[in-house]
Amino acid sequence: MLPDHISPEKWARFKKAAEQYQTPFLLIDLPTVAEKYQELRKGFDFASVYYAVKANPHARILKLLAELGSSFDIASVYELDQVLAHNVEPERMSYGNTIKKRDDIRYFYEKGVRLFATDSEPDLRNIAEYAPGSRIYIRILTEGSEGADWPLSRKFGCNPEMAVELAVLAKKLGLEPYGISFHVGSQQRHIDVWDAAIAKVKVIFDRLREEHAIHLRMINMGGGFPAQYLTKANEFSVYCQEIIRFLKEDFGDNPPDIILEPGRSLVGDSGLMVSEVVLISRKSATSLNRWVFSDVGLFNGLIETLGEAIKYPLLTERDGEAEEVVLAGPTCDGMDIMYEDYKYELPLSLEIGDRLYWFSTGAYTTSYSSIEFNGFPPLKSYVLD
Ligand SMILES: *Cc1c(COP(=O)(O)O)cnc(C)c1O
Q: Does residue 118 have its Cβ closer than 6 Å to ligand 1?
């Protein structure tokens, strides 16, 4: 059955385009990306959107978002070059990675970028030296990763006390303490975690103003908005409604500048990954579950099935009676198994050589694909205009 968010028309378009190519590959429906961008702009009309390039750096996606007026959250000099290739002004970019080399900071500064994330004193001192006078925002830890299907929070951010100290130090070092950022974890299904994060930011804003006469002006609320996978999340409109309410509760009618850094929610649903069944087998004559091996696996596009974190809607063109299977990839690595605990049901009539269609695979697939593990090439992608 088609997932709810795929209309028969869209499916027909995908199918037709897919016929031209050899598996495995990803199709990206650009109109869907544009739609998602407009939906976000409408839902948060007061916010600036910085697309998290790592979700899918395809040149056509960058070009489209650049033309639509998006800004970009960039994590490396390589991503910076990719975005610069589309004539995006440096005022529309932030260096959002808190882990950076001095040379990289210098490179961003030379290219005109003046907005930097930080969460530690050594990094802040490097920014002061190699990107003097720039605006900085301090990333705070968000508590726990509950509700996020792909958590990010433990590695990045500092506690609020340290954020206050870093803002004070930033000012001393000639930088402009500009705001606070957080990321509630990717594919975050618990909307309440934004409430807790915004409340923490409010405390930091107040303390800096009252104790240090530092007036922060921006909150970067990161990403975390959902794509449509098998584990359901609320409608995007519910996220908007709730998060705007949280902002109002803490900041009244005069909220600071708001930055959003969506990755997954902008590009996830635009993708259809097409793979082929390489082998169907059983481990013994009496074993209940068949193993279905596909020509995409964890190393060439499906890394987010690690720990069965993300469950993509999956379709075959066979029908009839279905049976629970184990789904695995094509490489010689034992961890290249997508789903074993969670059992997908696939038709008994499924045969070697049949195509498998993986929906909502536009984010964190091609960009996470290995170069040539076992000689398998990186996942190719093609766009639909
Ligand atoms: C990965 C990342 C994002 C994007 O998160 P999504 O959950 O994909 O929207 C945004 N901001 C930062 C700093 C990130 O590292």
A: no
Structural domains in the chain plus CATH codes: 57-262 (3.20.20.10), 269-384 (2.40.37.10)
CA of 55, closest atom in ligand 1: 8
CA-to-CA distance for 68 and 259, rounded, in angstroms? 16
Q: Does ligand 1 come within 6 angstroms of the Cβ of 55?
A: yes
CB atoms within 10 A of CB 71: 22
Distance CA 19, CA 79 (A): 31
Ligand 1 proximity of 183 Cβ (cutoff 6 Å): yes
Pull the structure tokens for residue 247. 């902002």
Ligand 1 pocket check for 265: Cβ under 6 Å: yes
Sign of the CA dihedral running 111, 117, 120, 124: positive
Q: Give tens-digit pLDDT for 155-211.
A: 899 999 999 999 999 999 999 999 999 999 999 999 999 999 999 999 999 999 999
Q: For ligand 1, what atom is nearest to the CA of residue 363? A: 8
Model confidence, pTM? 0.96
Q: Which two tokens stand for residue 312?
A: 């993509």
**Which amino acid is present at 134?**
S
